[in-house]
Amino acid sequence: MAVFWKAVAGGLLLTVSLLGGPAEGQGNERGKKQVSGNSVLFLSQVRDLWRPLVHTAVNLSEINSIKSSFQFRTYDPEGLIFYGDTKNGEDWFVLSLMNGIPLMQISKEGMLVSVEGGMKLNDGKWHTLEVSNQEKFVILEVDGSTGLKVGMQSQQTEEVMSGGLRLALGGILIEKEKMIVQFKPQMDACVRHGNWLNISVPWEAEVEELWPCYENIRPGSYFPGTGFAVFNTSVFQTDEDGELRVELWADFRQMNGTILSIKPSQKELEFKVEANKNTEEVTVSFREQKVILKSTFKKLLIMFARAELRVVQDGDESQSTALSVDPVLTTWRDGLLGIGGLLGEAEDGSHFLTGCLEKIQVQDRDLDLDLAVKHTSISSHSCPA
């Protein structure tokens, strides 16, 4: 297929809050909130994509350790974790995940190095990461074992290190084009128990309030009832039979609100899937027709064909219902797909979804909400357990 996922241009003008209280901190003379380097930090908090969540600076003469360690937890396969630089960004280091695997990118004395490897870290468990510089090597240890080891040696005379060093979490302080490997920076992840070069200077936050992390998580996308995510339907390609498949995995009895909605361009809302926790029912509506299901199933498959819409529960064709509507697929050609809310209606938020979608697939491919225009309270890859 050609380009499969594409975010919708524009944004959702909605207010934002995440469950729980803000992390502790205090202001400084520049009005920036200051936090301890060992704070619990939710890296996916909304801000400009490449902008750090928190950052700090220290004089190299004050550093007596060349080692940083922290604990890290995520189900997200891709995103930016940790950045450091010297010489005001001439030499730099970036640690991220790509397909769940650690990726280190380093610039030093004009050399650019990129290396990835080790175990996948997006298993939802807390992992202890340690980054150190040992002579000509940069080493990443994961849970006490060496994950990556990068050697760098320049023909130039090595300079005596002096000046300042900058550190950042969740963002970088250089242009993203300088990196060898490009990736999506936003990451649904948490960092805690940081010990950064054994320094105790406070970090500055680039947001007014720092959001907390859930104590326990499980895989999925969590909607707290405050907003929804939007995709452009025109990028979802039909298969060879002219069909389009949408599959949802969830405990539908625990969900309440609009799960999916589709609004063709310049037309009224045509399709929606709604859950009612009180009645334990899921209603699938297409134009004037609707199907009401008892929400005892764990997987819901919706197939859009040329002249039919079919709804299948738990992969059991004997538990399927068809709506004969012609044409169905035109709904997808130019419009918007809403996940967790009702497009074009109910701006009071009464239809926003509350609950965890364990998995969302379109054409048998996982739908990554990080590629949507989404409300900032939605956790793309984790739900509270």
UniProtKB/TrEMBL annotation:
Q: Which GO terms describe its cellular component?
A: extracellular region
GO molecular function, one example?
Answer: androgen binding
The protein's matches in CDD domains, at most eight in alphabetical order, are given as: LamG
Keyword match Signal: yes
Q: Which PROSITE patterns match?
A: LAM_G_DOMAIN
Q: What is its main location?
A: secreted
Q: Which residues form the signal peptide?
A: 1-25
Query: Where's it found, cell-wise?
Result: Secreted
Record function comment: Functions as an androgen transport protein, but may also be involved in receptor mediated processes. Each dimer binds one molecule of steroid. Specific for 5-alpha-dihydrotestosterone, testosterone, and 17-beta-estradiol. Regulates the plasma metabolic clearance rate of steroid hormones by controlling their plasma concentration.
Q: How does it assemble?
A: Homodimer.
Q: What's this protein's name? A: Sex hormone-binding globulin
Q: Which species expresses this protein natively? A: Oryzias melastigma
